[in-house]
Amino acid sequence: MSKKQLVLLLLLMICLVLPGCPPDVPPIVVPPEEDECIEPTDPPDDGQVVIREEVEAAIFEYVNAVRVEEGLTPLIYDADVSSVALAHSKDMFDRSYLDHKNPDGLRPCDRLTQAGITWSHVGETIFYTEGYRPEKIAAMTIDAWLESPSHRKVLLNPVYTHTGLGVFGTPCGRFYVTEMYLKKK
Prior knowledge:
Layout: H1 3-14, H2 49-69, E1 76-77, H3 79-95, H4 108-114, E2 121-130, H5 134-147, H6 149-155, E3 162-169, E4 174-183
Parallel strand pairs: 1-3
Antiparallel strand pairs: 2-4, 3-4
Helix pairs in contact: 2-5, 5-6
């Protein structure tokens, strides 16, 4: 099995779209290619806010472009959902795990409910890589999700109306991406 096939197989196992919370899935790691990254000269700040916002905006725009190409309504950006997604990405970064369920047992639907967000359907995609330049993270994330039938199904699910994104990492370090999709009640 090639490296690309293995990555796609693992991505496929990460996300299933069901009403309510997605089930637990195994983690996926995309290692850097040789000579891909140049180490930053400045010490990273708390999540590299400018980089994070650029990557989140690129993913949001690309997901909606794909949805429109498929004849679907674009997702509405929700800042509250993005805060939940960012908190999950930061938690995965801080505690070095990759899973829809955090070490405390909270699933995507639990995290949204704790934040006071009402929903009827929830989906979540997560992505992890290390060693890549931030400008490549958005393209890598979307390409991987679109090549995976289960992730593509989440992106193109017509039931979802809102989305929130959270990217956390350091330049050329570990990067975690969480995108949450939901239909609000």
